[in-house]
Amino acid sequence: MGVVSEGKGYSGFVRCMCWCCCLLLLVIIISGGFAYYIYSAEDPKPPVYDIQSFTVNTLDLEDDSTLKTEFVVIFKIENPNEKIGFVYGEKNNVSLLFDDDIISSGQLPAYKQGPANTTVLEVALAGTCPDESSTFQDIVQNGKEKGVGIEFVVKMMVPMKFYVGNVGDVARKEVIASISCGLVMKNLVSGKTATILEKECEELVKF
């Protein structure tokens, strides 16, 4: 009667597992190397931000001299890269500043942007802040009467990763995109869309 050697069977199983692990590792290395090659060869460019519209939902001075603000901002975000996409994280921040003070804030939705893609996003901003001397309200009222613009700054800090082509799971390390958009607007009236007189956005991303 024949005898089956357990040692040989176990050895064969281990050898098979080792080959599978090595093959899997090789695939990962090749995929990662290809992604890095494309990433380096493409010289990735940061996304380009633009503010399309700015709607004032609420702009009120409460009885306790607290300024209450609610805005809706439409952003257009362009990815200029032909082969590189971006994954934007949910832990981002969008702030509206007047005279270096944050008067409203919100977040961009987390999403994936494909190569050579343009995405339009609607972002709600809200906030309360003290305006005891009614300085902001006075400036807004003065702007209405004289038809002059008021300067604001929209600042964004957005975590992002990149991926190559349509392979969403080849994301590399996370970087932080810092975006600053200067705005000059008039007609800041609750329930209406403000008139944007001037706008300019600067993007800073260190890949």
UniProtKB/TrEMBL annotation:
Protein name: Late embryogenesis abundant protein LEA-2 subgroup domain-containing protein
The UniProt record lists the keyword Membrane: yes
GO biological-process terms attached to the record: defense response to other organism
Transmembrane segments: 12-39
GO cellular component: plasma membrane
Taxonomic source organism: Lactuca virosa
Keywords: Membrane, Transmembrane, Transmembrane helix
Entry's localization field: Membrane
Database matches in InterPro entries: NDR1-like
UniProt lineage: Eukaryota, Viridiplantae, Streptophyta, Embryophyta, Tracheophyta
